[in-house]
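Cross-check.
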Amino acid sequence: MHIQSIPMCKRAHPKLLFILDRFLDYSHVRKGVGSSNNYAYVVTDESSKDAVIVDPANPSEYLSHFKSLSLPVIGGKDCKSVTKTPKHEETFKIGKQISVKALHTPCHTQDSICWLMEDGKEKVVFTGDTLFIGGCGRFFEGTPAEMHTALNKTLAALPDDTKVYPGHEYTRQNVKFLTTVLQTEAVKNLQKFAENNQQTQGKFTIGDEKQYNVFMRVDDPTVQKATGKTDPVDVMGKLREMKNNM
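Predicted model, tokenized:
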């Protein structure tokens, strides 16, 4: 499995288009990371060269091409031009080797889907606006309970070595919030990495997130003390409120 930011590798032959977030404005995005820090990815099956575009920049340019070839557009049920919405935990293949599982994670939007991809021992998850490196998305259409389920039940259940590919590069600003809640070695290491690297996608895993991401540490006494709450859902809601008010 080969993952790269758009512009797309010429050797790849796109077969599917994944839409993770229908709220994103891609009009200004020209490369892998746009002016609002959007990430877009191409995932290629090395053996067949079949590929998918995940969270595409300028989707209208791709949609016209895909429609002319009668290729499917896969995403949440409310996303524009979607032709197929997989059920929660439904699986399918990209090329010969890549297995894909749809993980429904409603909250940022009610039709949010994260995509777990596996190729042999390699595991990655594309998390859109649900999970960021060191943070999570706003609850535009959902509740703290839904984000708690998305992060701490659905995504936290993935193998710890699953690499995280989010929809935005928000790590530096996320770290600023993390340091107000936790001052652990894991947070300090993330802070150092973010200060020295402009891009953090694919550099950290689900296991890493459990160490420093306070939204995935709602049972941590230190996090609970910072929020003044003990119930995990209440902690989630208070953390989001605190982050919003920074």
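The chain has a mean pLDDT of 85. The radius of gyration is 18 Å. Passed to J.P. for a second look.
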